[in-house]
Design goal:
The chain has 198 residues and is mostly beta strands. 0% of the residues lie in helices and 52% in strands. Strands 1-20-19-18 form a four-stranded antiparallel β-sheet, with no helix packed on it. A four-stranded antiparallel β-sheet has the order 2-3-4-5, with no helix packed on it. Strands 6-7-8-9 form a four-stranded antiparallel β-sheet, with no helix packed on it. The relative contact order is 0.17.
Length: 198
C-alpha cells in the first residue's frame, strides 16, 4: 500500500486526520494538540479551532451517529456535547493512545502498552498485542468485518485477521503515524505530512 505525498496540508504538522462524513468536513489534530477543521475542498486552509473544548488532544474520531470523541494527552476519553467535551475519564481504567469505531459502530482502542481493546458497554475486552505487535493506531475499512489495519510502534503497517489471529505485514513506502479509510486511503507520516493512496 503506497502513498503519494501531498505535503503538509495547510502548512500544519499533523498527528492525525479524520473525516466527518455527515458534515463533509476534514478534521485534524496538530502536533501541539490543537484541532483544525476544513471543508472537503482540495487544499483549503485549516480553520484553527485551538485546544477544542480546552483539551490538548492526541486524536479525535466520529461514531456512527456522527458524535465526536477525543483522546486527551492524559489518555482520557472525551465525548462532544455541543459546547465542549464531557470527560469520560480513563474508560475501563485504561490509559489510551487512540480510539476507533468499527463498521458496526463498536468502539475499539489502543492502550498505552500498544494492546487492543473492544468496548463491551462497561469495560474493554482485552485482545492483547495483536499478532504480537505493539500498536500505535488501528483503522477499520468499510466492508472488512474480520480484519483491522494496524500501525505498529515501529511505524509499520499490518492487517490483523481476527479469524486466524494472524498479523499480515503490509508493504508500504511510508513510515506511518496513522491511517484513514474513506473514498481514498489517507496516511499521516512521521513527519506530519499527508499521503494519498496510489
Amino acid at each position: 500500500m503506497n502513498f503519494n505525498s501531498i505535503g503538509k496540508v495547510g502548512n500544519w504538522t499533523l498527528k492525525m486526520l479524520t473525516f466527518d462524513a455527515k458534515n463533509n468536513k476534514w478534521w485534524c489534530v496538530g502536533t501541539e494538540g490543537n484541532t483544525g477543521e476544513m471543508n472537503n475542498v482540495a487544499m483549503q486552509p485549516w480553520t484553527d479551532k485551538g485546544l477544542l473544548g480546552g483539551w490538548t488532544l492526541k486524536m479525535i474520531a466520529f461514531d456512527s451517529n456522527d458524535t465526536m470523541y477525543s483522546v486527551g494527552t492524559e489518555g482520557n476519553v472525551g465525548k462532544w456535547n455541543g459546547k465542549g467535551f464531557t470527560d469520560l475519564g480513563l474508560m475501563g481504567g485504561w490509559t489510551l493512545k487512540m480510539i476507533a469505531f468499527d463498521t458496526k459502530g463498536t468502539m475499539w482502542c489502543v492502550g498505552a502498552d500498544g494492546n487492543v481493546g473492544k468496548w463491551n458497554g462497561t469495560g474493554w475486552d482485552n485482545y492483547g498485542l495483536l499478532g504480537g505487535w505493539t500498536l500505535d493506531w488501528i483503522a477499520f475499512r468499510a466492508g472488512d468485518v474480520e480484519e483491522v489495519y494496524c500501525v505498529g510502534a515501529k511505524h509499520n503497517l499490518g492487517k490483523y485477521e481476527f479469524d486466524t489471529k494472524e498479523m499480515l505485514s503490509v508493504s508500504t513506502n511510508w513510515t506511518l503515524k496513522s491511517i484513514l479509510f474513506g473514498n481514498e486511503t489517507i496516511a499521516v507520516g512521521t513527519e506530519g505530512n499527508v499521503g494519498v493512496s496510489q
